[in-house]
Design a protein that fits this description.
- With 593 residues, the chain is mainly alpha-helical.
- It has 3 domains: 246 residues, no CATH class; 257 residues, no CATH class; 41 residues.
- It is built from 22 helices and 2 strands.
- Strands 1-2 form a two-stranded antiparallel sheet.
- Strand 1 and strand 2 form a beta hairpin.
- Helix 4 runs parallel beside helix 9, helix 9 packs parallel to helix 11 and helix 12 packs antiparallel against helix 14.
- The radius of gyration is 28 Å and the shape is globular.
- It starts with 8 loop residues before the first helix and ends with a helix.
- The mean pLDDT is 91.
- GO terms for molecular function: oxidoreductase activity.
- It is a multi-pass membrane protein.
- One of its GO terms (cellular component) is plasma membrane.
- It holds the Pfam family Proton_antipo_M.
- Keywords: Cell membrane, Membrane, Oxidoreductase, Transmembrane, Transmembrane helix.
């Protein structure tokens, strides 16, 4: 095994991020495209089981661990990073922003190729830092959104760290079970550690109630920054969820089903293009979370197939939306229309991405969604609310599919196919077109040639020896299912089009906790400063009285006889002294006990 092969990609990519930020714009972006692209053949060729074990903070750590799950993540992360850098150059991003973006890519690589929990949480937290810097770089409204993003991800990382420490207490090691010296049982320790891990990771994947950072943050920064942001945090979260719960968990599976429906519903309410796409990140990640939660080989293969496919079509959707914003300066669907005549390449790329995310036959989303839905039917329980032949989780996922069709029919209708745009605008420039068409082609290739996708999955979904139910993509029932969902989506949009057009901004949970956090922090700061000021005044007054009493006792006594107003400061000073003495005695007694 060559020494070069054993170098963790995070090292090379972090160095690259620094180099790119210092080079001239053209040269920096050229290097920025090349190195992540080289990570793809590296991830394909590095031997399975390769690991780099060392000491980190005095504990056993594995900085590089290669298995089918990390390999798949490395392939798709390297591929989309290279395309996103090309798109960044074409969209006038500066090298500093691209440097931040590549540091974000690097820390994501560090997390998915970690072989122990300590290394994973180290890069997990760095990933929150680098992505926050990427958001902040744009300035304006992105600064406050980035601050809220950082707070929430800091909370999630803290909970995950607490889970990892509890896990260490139970098993005595941070190592994953798949590496030499690791524990016999895979995953996080059941009980408190598992609950903390689920919530901590739930922030990254967008659990309902912990999701509002997605539509709050991703529409704010530069259009090229959004392409990076839509990929790495949530998908690394899905990877972390698998590491914590390799055998699945019923509650996580149903949370995934709920996310699929909730995200699609709120996406349907949006008129801001990137906000709509952000809600659909939550919805689509819900399918992945459901696959992990089901826990079977079939469903987990589907979860990671959907990770792979989602990165392609979601990156493409953000690129197409970015081109529209780049050319028109408009974010709102209400101010667009008829752009397919002006921007046929962008409209075509959007159509491929929309059909892919909705799971229409012939596109990659149809393949991976189908695996997860099959897993929900054949390898999971009926649940509390089965509807005929459809089990509870299954119909939640199907309902999310209808909502997805409705959302993207809405997006395409208002942005590209309804009416006429009131001025002439150019289509995507040459390099933007190259980036979009390349990803669109992959969405079709992995949809038509499903065996190409199956070849990189961690489990062989076509083998009876591996999965409980062998999966076949292009069966008559599955094709009918895909077409029926599309028809229901079309009917649903036609029925709801008029009432949806009258909607303003629909409040989400962030309309409650954003003001609560803002005013809560402000109240805390004001309270602390005012308390300090009050104590300071009291101490100054008491000190003045004591000083005057010692130096000129006769004058003080005389003034007290003539002016009762001095009695009150003296009493305050004496009271404060007694309070301080009482606190000191209490602390001393507690320490001695």
């Amino acid at each position: 095994m060559s020494t070069l092969t054993m170098v963790p990609p995070v090292v090379v990519l972090l160095a690259l991020a620094i180099v790119v930020s210092r080079l001239p714009r053209r040269a920096g972006h050229a290097v920025g495209v090349l190195v992540p692209a080289l990570a793809v053949p590296w991830a394909v060729m590095v031997p399975e089981g390769a690991h780099l074990q060392t000491q980190f903070l005095g504990f056993d750590a594995v900085l590089l661990n290669v298995d089918p799950f990390s390999r798949l993540m490395g392939i798709i992360f390297g591929l989309i990073a290279a395309v996103a850098v090309l798109y960044s150059y074409a969209s006038e991003a500066d090298t500093t922003q691209t440097g931040y973006a590549l540091s974000y890519v690097a820390t994501s690589f560090g997390a998915v190729f970690a072989g122990d929990w300590l290394t994973l949480i180290f890069f997990w937290e760095l990933m929150a830092v680098t992505s926050t810097l990427l958001v902040w770089h744009y300035g304006g409204k992105a600064v406050r959104a980035g601050f809220r993003y950082a707070l929430l991800h800091g909370l999630g990382g803290t909970l995950l760290m607490a889970a990892i420490l509890r896990h260490y207490v139970e098993v005595g090691t941070f190592l994953f079970s798949s590496v030499p010296g690791g524990p016999e049982t895979a995953g996080i320790t059941p009980g408190l550690a598992a609950a903390l891990a689920a919530i901590g990771i739930g922030v990254n994947v967008g659990f309902i109630g912990l999701h509002a950072w997605l539509p709050d943050t991703y529409p704010r920064p530069h259009i090229a920054a959004s392409v990076f942001l839509c990929v790495f945090t949530t998908k690394t979260g899905v990877y972390g969820m698998y590491r914590a719960f390799p055998n699945g968990h019923e509650a996580i599976a149903y949370m995934g089903g709920g996310m699929a429906v909730f995200g699609a519903l709120f996406a349907l309410f949006q008129n801001d293009m990137r906000r709509l796409l952000s809600y659909h990140i939550q919805s689509q990640v819900g399918y992945m979370v459901a696959g992990v939660g089901i826990g079977s080989a079939l469903s987990q293969a589907g979860a990671f197939a959907h990770v792979f496919n989602h990165i392609l079509y979601k990156g493409l959707l953000f690129m197409t939306a970015g081109v529209v914003i780049y050319r028109t300066g408009t974010e709102s669907l209400k101010k667009l229309g008829g752009l397919w005549r002006e921007m046929p390449i962008t409209a075509g790329a959007f159509s491929v991405a929309a059909l892919s995310i909705a799971g229409f036959p012939g596109f990659n989303g149809f393949v991976s969604k189908g695996i997860i839905i099959s897993g929900s039917h054949y390898t999971f329980g009926k649940g509390p609310l089965p509807l005929g032949e459809f089990y509870t989780l299954e119909w939640l996922l199907l309902l999310g599919g209808v909502g997805t069709f409705m959302s993207f029919i809405k997006f395409g209708y208002y942005a590209f196919f309804h009416g006429e745009y009131d001025s002439s605008v150019p289509d995507a420039n040459r390099l933007q077109s190259v980036a979009m068409v390349s990803v669109a082609a992959l969405c079709v290739i992995y949809g038509v040639y499903d065996t190409a996708l199956f070849a990189i999955l961690p489990f062989d979904v076509t083998s009876e020896a591996v999965v409980h139910h062998v999966y076949k993509t292009y069966t008559i029932p599955h094709l009918i299912e895909g077409v029926v969902l599309a028809v229901l989506g079309l009917i649903g949009f036609a029925v709801t089009k008029k009432p949806l057009s009258k909607l303003g901004r629909v409040p989400d949970i962030d309309s409650v906790y954003n003001p609560a956090v803002f005013y809560g922090f402000r109240g805390l700061v004001v309270g602390v400063t005012e308390l300090y000021a009050a104590v300071d005044r009291a101490v100054v007054q008491a000190t003045g009285i004591v000083t005057r009493t010692v130096t000129s006792p006769n004058d003080v006594i005389a003034r007290l006889r003539d002016d009762d107003t001095l009695v009150h400061p003296m009493r305050a000073g004496i009271g404060l002294s007694i309070l301080i003495l009482a606190v000191f005695v209490t602390v001393a007694l507690l320490a001695l006990s």
